[in-house]
Amino acid sequence: MDPITQEIINSPSIEIINFTIATASGSADSLIMSSSPAGSSASSPTTLSRYENQKRRDWNTFGQYLSNHRPPLALSRCSGAHVLEFLRYLDQFGKTKVHTQLCPFFGHPKPPAPCLCPLRQAWGSLDALVGRLRAAYEENGGKPETNPFGARAVRLYLREVRDSQSKARGISYEKKKRKKPALKPPALPPPS
């Protein structure tokens, strides 16, 4: 059982109503809980969405990173530089091959052979992570104007990662253009 699930189960302020563990056969995991203390009359149970679960896990991971930081760092003292340090730390757990400029496969989306280039966090994963942490920061009482995840340095870092991975992997990360809704012809007045 992962530590976050264990934390939820052991929490005195959360009553577990329904808990299903995902199996290899593909059954979905669901966690239905209520925030009332166990034993009291429960309000309507809430099912956390996949996004909310991931946001909570990411927030807990970042909190763990801050507490393991030397010296330990309070959230109120956290800056964009600390967020960048966290993102670079996460890079070591990446699964996306990013070719160096010296690699013969630099710029090839599907290289024909393996190479020794490093594995990194994909830009899309980092971008989504920063978005979830930005939302979690404000949900946990942080002010939008002091949100370290929205710092200019973080935005520039993400842009730099996107551009370098785009070149290294030969993949374009163009912003998707929104389709404009089709204009409906004006309604004709009813015949008189």
Automatic annotation (TrEMBL):
<keyword id="KW-0238">DNA-binding</keyword>
<keyword id="KW-0217">Developmental protein</keyword>
<dbReference type="InterPro" id="IPR040222">
    <property type="entry name" value="ALOG"/>
</dbReference>
<dbReference type="GO" id="GO:0009416">
    <property type="term" value="P:response to light stimulus"/>
</dbReference>
<keyword id="KW-0804">Transcription</keyword>
<feature type="region of interest" description="Disordered">
    <location>
        <begin position="163"/>
        <end position="192"/>
    </location>
</feature>
<dbReference type="GO" id="GO:0005634">
    <property type="term" value="C:nucleus"/>
</dbReference>
<dbReference type="GO" id="GO:0009299">
    <property type="term" value="P:mRNA transcription"/>
</dbReference>
<keyword id="KW-0539">Nucleus</keyword>
<dbReference type="GO" id="GO:0003677">
    <property type="term" value="F:DNA binding"/>
</dbReference>
<feature type="compositionally biased region" description="Pro residues">
    <location>
        <begin position="183"/>
        <end position="192"/>
    </location>
</feature>
<dbReference type="InterPro" id="IPR006936">
    <property type="entry name" value="ALOG_dom"/>
</dbReference>
<comment type="similarity">
    <text>Belongs to the plant homeotic and developmental regulators ALOG protein family.</text>
</comment>
<keyword id="KW-0805">Transcription regulation</keyword>
<dbReference type="Pfam" id="PF04852">
    <property type="entry name" value="ALOG_dom"/>
</dbReference>
<feature type="domain" description="ALOG">
    <location>
        <begin position="50"/>
        <end position="177"/>
    </location>
</feature>
<protein>
    <submittedName>
        <fullName>Protein LIGHT-DEPENDENT SHORT HYPOCOTYLS 4</fullName>
    </submittedName>
</protein>
